Amino acid sequence: MDPIPIVLSARPQQNEWPNEEWAAALSADGKWQPAPFQEFVLKVHGRCNLSCDYCYVYELADQSWRSRPGAMSVEILKQTALRIGEHAATHALSDVFVVFHGGEPLLAGPEFIDHASKTLRDAMPDGTALQLSIQTNGALLNEDFLRVFDRHDIHVGVSLDGDRLANDKHRRYANGRGSYDEVVRGLRLLTTPAYRRLFSGLLCTIDVDNDPVGTYEAMLEFEPPSVDFILPHANWIQPPPRWRENPDHTPYGDWLIAVFERWYSAPTQETDVRTLRAILDELLGGRSHDEVIGLAAIRLIEVETNATVEQVCSLKSAFDGATGTGFNVFAQSFDDALGHPGVMARQAGAEALSDICGGCLVRDVCGGGHYVHRYRTGSGFRNPSVYCADLYRLITYMGQRVAEDLQNAVKVVR
After folding, report:
1. Phi/psi of residue 42, each to 5°?
2. Which has the closest alpha carbon to 229: 287, 162, 164, 141?
3. CA 317 to chain centre
4. Region 183-196: what's the mean pLDDT?
5. Are 343 and 337 contacting, i.e. CB atoms less than 8 angstroms apart?
6. Dist. CA 393–CA 251, nearest whole Å
7. Phi/psi class of residue 283: alpha, beta or left (left: φ > 0; alpha: ψ in -120 to 50)?
8. Taking Cα atoms as reference points, which of 358, 396, 352 lies closest to residue 374?
9. What is the tens place of the pLDDT at every residue in 190-210?
10. Structure confidence at residue 14 (pLDDT)
């Protein structure tokens, strides 16, 4: 794999976008209002049992994990639950989604997850349904956890990068040993008849040196209800592997096109591929609520192990302190965080796009790409995605493919 420069700290320049001036102008006439948060990511544990080389929490620009508690305390959990309940009541939310996250959230232990689930449910106002999920690397999954998940209806997403060779290339322990065997053992438990209903899907970080169809078919072995292929978190100051600033060089777009053809051409649907489904939804006139595709408002906020309220943790790949809001659950409400410029930018749709994106034919489908991937020192996040060429290639290919099928379908009907 080609080496890429490691930026240990790329602090934003003063007044980089989004800033207070932009936020004030956006809401000045009262026509634009933020949407209340509906998804809350709780960092119940801030450490990990693996040492994946691409991890945005531990390996990239922001190293704040070093100074934070390893685990969320019961007191912080209780206050967070009260704040979520308060927010749900204020905005009469019918549904609230809480994700247990990390680090590796299973390090918090089954007893804490059990207590957290009860605490959160007790804090919900009448009329608000709480939906719980957890994202794990799967290596620590056992019957104790699964019994807790079953009791509280906690849906489980597992990270896996393909077959043994592909997975163990990056997803390793600190001593270099691969994690595949432990993850597969956990998946085998999760997919037994007693617990399969809790299995929400697999998450794979793309490595373009791995065979795309082989990677996809390795995931199908576990019959996941969904698969999500995510682009490595990168930006204009720390570009992804195999990347070149050339609109004709689209390794990630080509990789995803190969997956799309295998998925789309199957005689029956074997699973759902989240990003590809989101693109299809947008192409066919629907609205995706995926944070990496489309212009829908992103209604997500996170709480760290030290009680700080933060933007999505993948922003840690951009610069030191990129996720910060200056708020914590003891001193401020989640309504206070709605006014943060970064939060507003994730909800502002086309108003948050660069001028280049504004004139693009696939703007409304792409939505500028993942916000995290737009960062460039000096201009902040008001840039196209570093994966712009790849996304354009993928979206136009999928659009042409579906258009041809629709035209053929019309001919058959006639």
Report:
1. -105, 120
2. 162
3. 13
4. 98
5. yes
6. 10
7. alpha
8. 352
9. 999 999 999 999 999 999 999
10. 59
Q: What's the pTM? A: 0.94
Q: What average pLDDT is seen over the chain?
A: 94
CB within 8 A of 121, min separation 6: which ones? 130, 152
Q: For residues 157 and 234, give the distance between their C-alpha atoms in angstroms, rounded to a whole number.
A: 23
Contact 324, 61 (CB under 8 A): no
Amino acid at 187: L
Q: Is 192 exposed, middle or buried (0-12, 13-18, 19+ CB in 10 A)?
A: exposed
Token pair belonging to 217: 């078919």
Q: β-strand 272-273 against 226-230: which pairing, if any?
A: parallel
Q: How far apart are CA 397 and CA 88, in angstroms?
A: 41
| Matching residue, tokens 């060779």 | 165
User: What type of residue is 372?
Assistant: V
What is the number of alpha carbons within 13 Å of residue 176 lying toward its C-beta?
0
Do residues 190 and 145 lie in contact, with contact meaning Cβ atoms separated by under 8 Å? Answer: no
The pair of three-digit structure tokens given for residue 303, joined into one six-digit string: 């709480």
Sign of CA dihedral 17, 18, 19, 21: positive
Q: Which H/E stretch holds residue 100?
A: strand 95-101
Please write the tens of the pLDDT for every residue from 348-407.
Answer: 999 999 999 999 999 999 999 999 999 999 999 999 999 999 999 999 999 999 999 888
Residue in the block written with tokens 């009791």: 151
Using the structure block, give the residue that is written with the tokens 């309504």: 335
pLDDT in tens, 127-171: 999 999 999 999 999 999 999 999 999 999 999 999 999 999 999
Spatial CA neighbour of 227 closest among 203, 262, 253:
203
Rounded to whole angstroms, how far apart are CA atoms 170 and 149?
Answer: 28
Residues in the chain: 414
In this structure, what token pair is assigned to residue 180?
């595949």
Alpha-carbon separation of residue 58 from 8, 50, 179 (angstroms):
11, 11, 17
